Structure formats: structure tokens, C-alpha cells
Amino acid sequence: MAFYLSALQKCPYLPDQEELLVLSDPREMVGSSQYDQLLQKGFRRNGPVAYRPMCPQCDACISVRIPVAEFQPDRGQRRTWARNQGIQIREQVPQWDAVHARLFAEYQCWRHPGGGMDEHADRLYREMIVETGGVDARLLVFEQDKHPLAVALVDVLDGGVSAVYTFYTPDLPQRGLGIFAILSQIEWTRKQRLPHLYLGYWVASSPKMDYKKRFRPLEGFVAGDWRLLSEAYKRE
After folding, report:
1. DSSP the chain
2. What are the structural domains of the chain?
């Protein structure tokens, strides 16, 4: 598979930093087997493209995963789990769904106010959710009274489950749907008898990433190897 470098662009996580990505060729199918190997090396997937940061002056983005057999929720996570026990979770293959697309658009407008996301939401939905690049992907649909509250896209691989993207209604902040979705994906990964749930990138100095630190133990891909983040930072 061929790989390319992106153009330098503004970092979405850190001010005054620029982002450079290694990208797979979008004309080639990534496929589950190859992507499983890339995931172990810190890559992620967005639609049909696998990518990894390779920023010239920064290495703050650390790919993280939860060893699900060892995970124990903290008090706040237990409360969030209990608060949402009326929600049913349904599994389906990624495909165009008008109801889900509207929920996706609402979520994008909430997360990126004034960014014009409503104009491009349908295109983003197809690129991010429907196009899988040949990877074995599933949608976990969180419903109450048959009304979708959240949707999580996950990739199912030999080495674990990768949490690709989750979107949910912004109208129920007291529910903690984002945290509940991760807790549910941990349980779903255990049921698949797979060892890890991959959570994407964590940036220590980015406040929007702080929630990932609460899922413990948390392993990070640091200096070419997976290790407990707490141990990695002790050695530095």
C-alpha cells in the first residue's frame, strides 16, 4: 500500500502547532487484515483512509487503548452507567440512514458552532460513517423507545475493537452519552472476546482529551511500543 504526506495545516488540538499526517492511498482498500497491523502501529481510520500524525515539531498525539479485561469503572462512570440503563443497543452494518444522518448533523453543529457543518453534514456522514475502506465495521445504535440517542462506529479486528467515531444528541447533557458509549463499547469488546478497545489519540495538554484519562488502565503507543501510560511517564 502506498502512503503520502498531507499538507501542513493548523493542529486541531494544540494552538500554535501545525499538523502533518501520513495518509494511505484512498484509491486502495485498507482492509481488515492490513488495518489491524496499522492500528498496532498507532494509525487510525477516517473513511477509506488510514492516517497517523507525523508532525515535524511535536509528538503529543499518543494512540491509546483500554485492556478491557482489566478495566474497572470509577465512581462517576458507574453513575453514568446506571443513569442510562433504559437505553437499548442495536448492532447494524454501516449504511446510509436518514435518521442517523440528521443526528450526525445536529452533533456536528453542536460541536462546531458557526463552522458551516450543516452545509456539509451529509457528505461528512457518508465519508466518515458509511465508507469503511473494506474494514469490518459495525454501528452500535443506542435507542430509547426506538428513538436513536447515539450512534457509535467501531471496527472489529483481530487485535481488538477500534472506536472510530461516536455522535449523539446534544439535548441530553445530563445523560453523559459520550462516556456511556465508551463504557458500552468496553462491554461489547469483552463480549467479542477481544483484548483491547482503541480510543484514538490522546493529547496530554488538550482539555478536550481529558476524559480519556479516566478510563484506566490506559495504554499508549509510546516510542514504538504499547505500555501503560502511567509507567511511560514515570520513565520520562
Report:
1. --EEEPPPEE-SSSTT-EE-EEEE-TTS---HHHHHHHHHTT-EEETTEEEEE--TT----EEEEEETTT----HHHHHHHHHTTT-EEEEE-----HHHHHHHHHHHHHHSTTS-HHHHHHHHHIIIII--TT--EEEEEEEETTEEEEEEEEEEETTEEEEEEEEE-TT-GGG-HHHHHHHHHHHHHHHTT-SEEEEEEE-TT-GGGGGGGGSSS-EEEETTEEEEHHHHHHH-
2. 3-235 (3.40.630.30)
- Per-residue pLDDT tens over the stretch 107-132: 999 988 765 556 688 999 999 999 99
The neighbouring-strand residues paired with 172 are none
Render pLDDT for 206-234 as a digit per residue (tens, 0 to 9): 888 999 999 999 999 998 999 998 765 55
Q: pTM for the complete prediction?
A: 0.94
